Every structure is written in C-alpha cells, then in structure tokens.
Amino acid sequence: MKALTIRPGDPDSLGVTDVPEPHAAAGELLVEAVALGVCGTDREIVRGEHGEAPEGSDRLVLGHESLGRVVEAPEGSGWDVGALVAGVVRRPDPVPCGACARGRFDMCRNGRFTERGIQGVDGFGSERWRIEPDYAVPVDDSLGTLGILVEPTSVVAKAWEQVELVGRRSWFEPDSVLVTGAGPIGLLAALLGVQRGLEVHVLDQVTEGPKPDLVRALGASYHEEPVDDVMAALRPEVVLEATGASSVVVDVLSGTARYGVVCLLGVSPGGRSVRIDAGGVNREFVLENDALIGSVNAHQGHFRAAATALADADRDWLDRLVTRRVPFARAAEAFEPGPGDIKTVIEL
Ligand code: BGC
C-alpha cells in the first residue's frame, strides 16, 4: 500500500512510498484512511527538525491528525464496520512512569512515550492503518471529513480542562478569555470558549483572509492591535496562547485580571531572546495569585470531549477552517504554506 513517509532528520525525504500492509500487532481494528490533517509539528518533521522512526526502520509514516473508516473489527470490540474513527496519538512509556501507569500518558514524566507519526511509531498517513480499540475514538458520522479536526480539538479540550482544574484552586467563574493566534488551535480554542458561554476575544496579526470573519461568525471579537494594548483594555481572566511567538508569550504574562490563568499551547523553537520585566511579571503573578501552565497532547477523554464539541458545532463554520484539500498523490504540496491557510487536509 501507499504511505506518506519521511526519513527523520532528512529535509529532502518526504514522499508517497510503498510500505507493507499494517501488521496485526499494531491493533485489532483495521481502518481505511479517509483523510489526514497537517499541522506545524508535521512541517517540523518534514523539515528534518523533529521526529523519530520506529525501531529498526529508517523511515516514519507521517501523520497524527487521523480520520478513517473501520473495515475490520473483532466481535466484542464495540466497533462496527463502517464507523468513522480518529486515533489517539500518544502511547504510554514502557517503564511506565506514574502518570502513564494511571492512563495519563499525556502527562508522561520520563519522556519515553511514543507518538504515532511523530516519535517512534508509524502514523496514520497510509491507505490503511491499524489501531488498538482502546485508542480509537468514535467520530459522529455527520461530521464527514471534518472529523479530521478531532485531534487538534483534543489538544484544546485538554487545555480548557487544565485551565478549569487550575481555576478550581479557589472560586473561579471567568467571563472572558483571550486567545492569541487564529490558526486551527486558536480558532478551535475560541469555539470551545464560546461553547462554554464565555466572552471570547481572539488576537492575530492578520487583517485580511478568512480569520477575522471566522472569529466574528462565532460571536467572538477579533483584535489585531498590539498584544499589550489588548491585555490592558481587556484584562482577561483566562489567556490561551497559541502562537508560540516569544514576544506574544511574554506580553500575555502581564495584564491578566486578578487570579488570571495563562495557558501556553504553542510549541516554539528555542534560541530567541526577548527583553522581559521579570520583576514586574513576578510581582503581578504573586500579588494576584495568577497561574501559568503549559499543555500538550491529549488522552482518550479529551478526544471524546473534542468529538462531542465538534458534533455540536456549526458545520459550515468548521468547513471554513479547512482551507485546502490536497489529494494523497500530491501530498507533498500540503506542506508548503499557501495564502490564507488555516487547516490543510490530505484526502486519501
Ligand atoms: C500533537 C501532540 C503532540 C505534540 C508534540 C502536536 O502537534 O498534536 O499530540 O504531543 O505535537 O509532539
């Protein structure tokens, strides 16, 4: 069968290549791929900056934003042939650490977890893939190919859960949230904020293209002013930072409401320095009982919450997030940035 593969570390190795059918040991469910989403992590892997092939192989099947239809399911697995399915990305470390032993592999402590299509295990970018029933998440059939958004939404479902857990240190009934970055993660974070009944503000630097209208269509407010001005005007109770841009990260640390919770979601390259008034930031965090958290990855519960949130969302709005659909044979094109891109999807 055909698969989208790369040689980790080699920026010229992306291609649709022949690979063996998925091995039965990879899971009892056999799935025919429908679509594959592309994100910043995939682009990093394609540039040779990230990613690890499975042991004994020099190539990695790419793809962790999955959607497929079950073609083979053992009796008693709870799965029917034809069901739409998305796959959980991470698998526990083999030790296992305390978190992985308790099913919280999204919080793995020793870093020896594996991630499909990213770290040490083949991903979902092949015509067929297998998955363990425990790591397969049902997707509402009415979502069709929009089910590809389950994985990125799982990441923001976890982020919202983390914000709410940290908020529960004391009384916490936030009214307002600022989301920085109107890419797929930022827009999906805004969607989940609106679904929670919050006053949602989204900040991005673009003034044209689909992002401002997508934000307004949610009933949220779009901002393109400098971050510190927006922070000063809004004094948000919650900030979800999804740009990973150093200057934005620094700016959202100051100017939250008292008891503010800032959650960082963007994976940024290191090595860039920005000036920061560390004393001022420290003073504000201490005197206001503010909290700063990072959040990555997601477990099955977050995937299920994501699938529910998407099933409840307006289909036309979700459809506008998918700005480019690329056929599998030309998959490499999906990794080149295009104008007005939000989410690029490879169709299998
Ligand atoms: C994926 C996560 C993963 C992270 C780091 C993200 O793009 O959504 O599942 O943990 O990359 O590899």
Shape: globular
The description of the largest β-sheet is: 7 strands, mixed
Number of strands: 19
**Number of helical runs?**
10
Estimate the mean pLDDT confidence: 97
Instruction: Detail the poorly predicted runs.
Output: none
Proportion of residues in β-strands = 15-25%
Tell me the series of helices and strands, N- to C-terminal: EEEHEEEEHEEEEHEHEHEHEHEHEHHEE
**Radius of gyration, whole Å:** 20 Å
Here the CATH topology of the largest domain equals Quinone Oxidoreductase, Chain A, domain 1
Structural classification: alpha/beta
Outline the secondary-structure elements:
Elements: E1 2-6, E2 15-18, E3 29-38, H1 40-46, E4 60-61, E5 65-72, E6 84-87, E7 90-91, H2 98-101, E8 114-116, E9 120-121, E10 128-131, E11 136-138, H3 150-167, E12 176-180, H4 184-195, E13 199-203, H5 211-217, E14 221-223, H6 227-234, E15 238-241, H7 246-251, E16 261-264, H8 278-288, E17 291-294, H9 300-312, H10 315-321, E18 322-327, E19 343-347
The structure holds beta-D-glucopyranose.
Residues 39, 41, 64, 89-90, 115, 118, 155, 296-297 line the site of beta-D-glucopyranose (BGC).
Task: Offer a concise description of the structure.
This protein has 348 residues and is of the alpha/beta class.
Written overview of the protein:
The structure is a single chain. The protein has 348 residues and is an alpha/beta fold. It folds into 2 domains: 2-138 and 314-347, Quinone Oxidoreductase, Chain A, domain 1 (Alpha-Beta Complex); 154-294, Rossmann fold (3-Layer(aba) Sandwich), CATH 3.40.50.720. 27% of the residues lie in helices and 24% in strands. The chain has 10 helices and 19 strands. The chain has helices spanning 40-46, 98-101, 150-167, 184-195, 211-217, 227-234, 246-251, 278-288, 300-312, 315-321, and strands spanning 2-6, 15-18, 29-38, 60-61, 65-72, 84-87, 90-91, 114-116, 120-121, 128-131, 136-138, 176-180, 199-203, 221-223, 238-241, 261-264, 291-294, 322-327, 343-347. The strands form 4 sheets. Strands 3, 5, 6, 10, 11, 18 and 19 form a 7-stranded mixed sheet that branches. Helix 8 (278-288) links the parallel strand 16 and strand 17 (291-294). Helix 3 packs across helix 4 and helix 3 crosses helix 9. The chain is globular and about 60 Å long. The mean pLDDT is 97. The structure holds beta-D-glucopyranose. Residues 39, 41, 64, 89-90, 115, 118, 155, 296-297 line the site of beta-D-glucopyranose.
